[in-house]
Design brief:
single chain; 359 residues; Rossmann fold; seven-stranded mixed β-sheet; six-stranded mixed β-sheet; globular
Length: 359
């Protein structure tokens, strides 16, 4: 078993220790912290040391369990230790936990992911296609008129919220969009056999920057853009300014109740629709339950619903759509989602990206 020091004694370290203790993925020699008030105390039964312990006791690996990874790595480099040491992020622990969780799994798709994780470390998308976007050149343009950056996407200006206030932030964000919608991605909404058709009426729930809507805007006859984050609503008004004859922007949270800041698809959308895309950070099941009338009225409906935010979303989404009379499938491949939505833990479950339904 690998012997490591962990750097940090806060919330991230507390969360990480549950995986270390349960999965037995490494032996923790002790903790390191720059806070002198914590040094010489105990954390999870291990001594908390100053960074000087690295001069006294050799260790091949340090796992940084704080949000200050870059600063701590630089601090370690500046110590000029007499031996080689590898500095890892918390994903190292999640990756080891996933390898342990699925070590006896017989799914060929998952086996390929495990090999990728072993060779490259854990990512959201653990596939070779990601590599082609690492150094992809992207040129954001700053529009001083509205004080936002935009990128030319499918020959259209796609604006970004003002909190993305540097070209570097926009580049990083846009690369993630390209990865999500790569032809090999588990997160791809559409493919050659699952499309939005000419003249369709579409609901895009969870629009953010609007890449899905931009891709289909010339084909649709009408599209409802439902986005609760006002920062993105401001950007969407710029992006779709030339299409307002067919675009309806709705700044609401979707759920199964019409109360306060929440509302339902049945309340927002009247008449049948042809396609629903939904990516609303773990509230997909609630929103589907609030759309019984819409599904009942829509006789030739297709939908693409994100199913990776919570561990059991795929099963529940398929059950709801099945009750609505839809045939269901899912995109190929798996995703790992390292964020908290409606759960209070970082899951080590690999999940399907998109559930697709069709009447």
């Amino acid at each position: 078993m690998e012997r490591v020091f962990c750097w940090g004694t806060g919330e991230m370290a507390t969360a990480a220790m549950s995986y270390i203790n349960i999965s037995k993925i490494c032996e923790v020699l002790g903790f390191i912290d720059n806070d002198t008030n914590k040094q010489k105390t105990s954390f999870f039964g291990k001594t908390v040391f100053s960074p000087q312990i690295l001069r006294e006791k050799k260790c091949s690996k340090i796992i940084v369990l704080t949000s200050h990874y870059d600063e701590i790595r630089e601090q370690i480099e500046d110590m000029h230790l007499s031996y080689d040491i590898t500095v890892e992020k918390i994903n190292y622990i999640y990756g080891k936990s996933i390898l342990k969780r699925y070590e006896e799994d017989q799914d060929g798709e998952i086996d390929k992911i495990l090999r990728y994780v072993e060779e490259n470390g854990l990512q959201i998308f653990n596939y070779d296609f990601v590599e082609k976007y690492v150094d992809k050149h992207i040129t954001p343009v700053y529009d001083s008129r509205c004080q936002m950056y935009y990128i030319w996407h499918k020959r259209k200006r796609m604006y970004f919220a003002k909190y993305l206030d540097t070209a570097e932030k926009v580049e990083r964000y846009y690369r993630n969009i390209l990865i999500e919608q790569d032809e090999h991605s588990p997160h791809r909404y559409l493919d050659d056999n699952f499309t939005v058709d000419e003249g369709d009426i579409v609901v895009d729930a969870g629009v953010a920057e609007g890449n899905f809507a931009i891709d289909i805007i010339d084909e649709v006859s009408k599209i409802y853009l439902i986005e609760a984050d006002e920062r993105w609503v401001e950007a969407l008004k710029q992006t779709f300014s030339a299409y307002m004859d067919k675009v309806v922007i709705i700044p609401k949270y979707l759920s199964c109740v019409d109360e306060g800041k929440y509302t339902t698809l049945d309340r927002l959308v009247t008449g049948p629709v042809d396609f629903i895309k939904m990516d609303i950070e773990g509230y997909e099941c609630d929103a589907l339950l609030g759309a019984y009338g819409l599904f009942e009225d829509s006789k030739r409906l297709k939908c693409a619903v994100c199913s990776y935010h919570n561990d059991h979303d795929e099963v529940v989404i398929k059950h709801i759509l099945g009750d609505y009379g839809m045939e269901c499938g899912h995109t190929d491949g798996y995703m790992w989602f390292p964020y908290l939505c409606r759960k209070n833990y970082i899951s080590t479950k690999l999940c399907r990206g998109i559930v697709r339904g069709k009447k």
